[in-house]
Amino acid sequence: MEVQGPGLDANNRKSNCSYFTNYYQSHFNGNEDFVPNPSAIIAQQKTSVIGALWFFNENVIEEVKNSDGSKESFKKSTDIIRGAPNLG
Fold first, then answer.
1. Contact status, residue 76 vs residue 87, Cβ threshold 8 Å
2. Are 52 and 10 contacting, i.e. CB atoms less than 8 angstroms apart?
């Protein structure tokens, strides 16, 4: 199976890194700053899974909850995960 898009690496956008750093530091007593080194999120299994779940919760869950089950709703949700441009 071919995987497209950033997947676990979705947090590599600077704003996501900043928000995730704040979340991680406050909820896991971490002192990591992922902004200067976004790849550090996926370097360890723990932070990569926490980061992926955080991203899904912050960016996708509302879209899924409000979905009407149509192909367009599914596409919008997957575009958010993939980081597709022009989502506004």
1. yes
2. yes
pLDDT in tens, 59-85: 788 877 777 877 787 787 777 777 665
Closest CA to 57 of 20, 26, 84, 18: 20
CB neighbours of 23 closer than 8 A, spacing ≥ 6?
Answer: 54
Does pTM top 0.70 for this prediction? no
DSSP state of 5: S
CB 49 within 8 A of CB 9: no
- What is the spatial distance between Cα 75 and Cα 17, in angstroms, rounded to a whole number? 24
